[in-house]
Amino acid sequence: MTERVAIVGVAQTRFSPKRAEVNVGEMAYEAIEQVLQETGLEIERDISNAVSCSHDIWDGQTISDIGITDVIGGHLRTEEKMAMDGATAVYYGAIGILSGEFDCTLVLAHTKMSQTNRNIVNNTAFDPLYTRMLGFDFTSAAALQARRYMSVYGISAEQVARVVMKNLGNARHNPVMHNGRDLSLDEILHAPMIADPIRSVDVAPDTDGAVALILASEERAKKISASPAWILGLGTCYDAHYLGDRDLADCMALEKASAMAYRMAEISEPRKQIDLVELGDEFSYQELLWMEGLGLCGRGEAGEMIESGFTASTGELPVNASGGLLGGVPVNVAGLNRVAEAALQVMGRSGVQIPDVDIAVAQGHSGFCGQHQCVVVLGREARSR
Amino acid sequence: MKRKVAIIGGGQTYHASRRHDVNQGEMVNEAVRAALDDAQMTMDDVDAVLLGNMEFFEGCHMTDCWLADATGAYGKPGLKITTGGTVGATEVVAGAHHVASGLFDRVLVIGFEKQEEGDSSAILSGVAHPLYGRSLAGAAVGYFAMMGASYMQAYGAREEHSAMVAVKARQNARKNPYAHLKLDITIQDVLASKMLAYPIRLMDMCPTSNGACAMILADEKTAKDRCKKPVWFRAAETAHNEQFELTWRDVTTTKPIFSRVCADKLYKKLGVENPAAFFDVFEIYEPATWAELVWYEDLGLCKRGEGFRLIEEGKTEINGAIPVNPSGGVLSTNAIGATAMLRVWEAALQIRGDAGEHQVPKDVNWALTTAYGGTNWTVMTALSKEWED
Question: What is the C-alpha radius of gyration for chain B, rounded to an integer number of angstroms?
Answer without folding.
Answer: 19
